[in-house]
Amino acid sequence: MLSNTQIKHVGKNGQVSLGKEYAEKQIQISKLSDGTLIIKPGKFIPDNELWLYTQNNIEKLDQAIKWAENAPRKETNLTELIN
């Protein structure tokens, strides 16, 4: 399973550089009971956004997107909207 093992140095501030290929990407770091760290790249959903991914909300979002794509466009009077 291992295809590439590297030794990295942890700096005084606790940071490790993973390289430019991981720049701006999310990673998951799991610490096992023996101190082993497992680093996995991926896309992760913040807790406060999990509600979007329940089946009921996925269907509602799909319907809303479909409506937005097909509904006729019209100008909005912002003054009326605010008042």
UniProtKB/TrEMBL annotation:
Name of this chain's protein: SpoVT-AbrB domain-containing protein
Protein's organism: Candidatus Phycorickettsia trachydisci
Organism domain of life: Bacteria
